[in-house]
Specification:
Strand order of the largest sheet: 1-2
Strand content: 5-15%
Structural class: mainly alpha
Number of helices: 7
Number of domains: 2
Helix content: 40-55%
Number of strands: 2
Shape: elongated
């Protein structure tokens, strides 16, 4: 065993700061959490997964359901009017009517662990997808979900996120020292 005794006050203070920084990672994890929430919300604007792939587009059934029988979206002849066409053309996957999923992204630090996710009940289904009927049937015996839902990963760490995390960690350690 080799033992080195340090008698330099400045070095001892730096070593103490380093030790404290490593023993309490919560400040750096909070910074990483904020960065991941921001990039996750941005994915809803670009309709891309953390790996850069595009999300599956909405199905025809989704568009038809959204158009429904609303008279304001159809002309007198029953065809979709310009307002209905605009609604269909502007619809992005995972945004929905309220946009709640894209806004309900949060981070949480517990001891030395960071979690990033959504409070929305259907978030896992959107992240991983689901087959028609995977969750059973409703009271009218319709499958839940009513059709296949493709996976559209919105949570995860992209290459840009990884670079940002490294930058946050390096900045934190420089500040701690």
């Amino acid at each position: 065993m080799i033992e080195i005794k340090v008698d330099n006050k400045a070095v001892l203070e730096e070593l103490y700061l380093l030790s404290h920084a490593v023993n309490d990672p919560s400040p750096v994890l909070k910074g990483i959490g904020e960065a991941l929430v921001k990039s996750t919300k941005q994915r809803f604007q670009t309709s891309t997964a953390p790996d850069g792939s595009r999300w599956a587009p909405n199905s025809q059934a989704t568009y038809l359901r959204d158009l429904g029988s609303a008279k304001s979206l159809h002309g007198k002849d029953g065809r979709i009017n310009s307002k209905g066409s605009g609604k269909v053309m502007g619809k992005r996957p995972l945004i929905g009517e309220t946009g709640n999923l894209s806004q309900q992204i949060h981070w949480r630090v517990d001891a030395d662990a960071l979690s990033v996710g959504s409070t929305m009940e259907y978030a896992a289904t959107q992240q991983f997808g689901a087959k028609q009927g995977a969750f059973g049937r409703d009271k009218r015996n319709h499958p839940i979900p009513w059709g296949d839902i493709p996976a559209r990963p919105f949570l995860g760490v992209s290459d840009q996120d990884a670079s940002k995390i490294m930058s946050i960690v390096n900045e934190y350690l420089r500040g701690a020292l």
